[in-house]
Amino acid sequence: MTKVKSLEDLKKMREELKAKLTLRQNGDNVEELVQVKVSMATCGIASGAKEVMDVIIAELDSHAIDGVVTQTGCMGYCYAEPTIEVTVPGKDPVVFSYVDERRAREIVSKYIKAGELVDGILPVNYEKVD
Ligand code: FES
């Protein structure tokens, strides 16, 4: 058990517990949140998917949008990596292609936040397994 030796320790402990609680609450209500899956097959990683994922997390945070950002495996779009699948609550999932850092910012601000269409949508070519 962590010992509390100062007010700073106590504040740090409080922030950590708040973060864990938020994560748990978000995990229970995932259908009510924006979900972004970043394809992290080898082709995605080689094309910059990790940097795209970092930008999406930062942009959701800066726009105060509650979302869950996860990585996923091969979605079958080698030719169009990096790709991301975005699910806005109440809408069907949409897959975006050639997502670089600029497009990641655009997708968050225009598609997710403002509900506008953005170029580069791919037809879904896979089925999800529950
Ligand atoms: S290996 Fe590239 S999308 Fe599957």
Quick synopsis:
This protein has 130 residues and is α+β, with helices and mostly antiparallel strands. It is built from four helices and five strands; from the N terminus they run αβααβββαβ.
Note the gap between the termini: 38 Å
Structural class category: alpha+beta
Mean pLDDT across residues: 88
Q: How large, in whole angstroms, is the Cα Rg?
A: 17 Å
Keywords:
130 residues; 5 strands; binds FE2/S2 (inorganic) cluster
Topology:
Layout: H1 7-28, E1 34-39, H2 42-46, H3 49-62, E2 67-72, E3 84-87, E4 94-96, H4 101-113, E5 121-122
Parallel strand pairs: 1-2
Antiparallel strand pairs: 1-3, 3-4, 4-5
Structure description:
It is a single chain. This protein has 130 residues and is α+β, with helices and mostly antiparallel strands. It is built from four helices and five strands; from the N terminus they run H-E-H-H-E-E-E-H-E. It has a five-stranded mixed sheet, with helices on one face. It is elongated, with a radius of gyration of 17 Å. It starts with 6 loop residues before the first helix and ends in an 8-residue tail after the last strand. The relative contact order is 0.15. The structure holds FE2/S2 (inorganic) cluster.
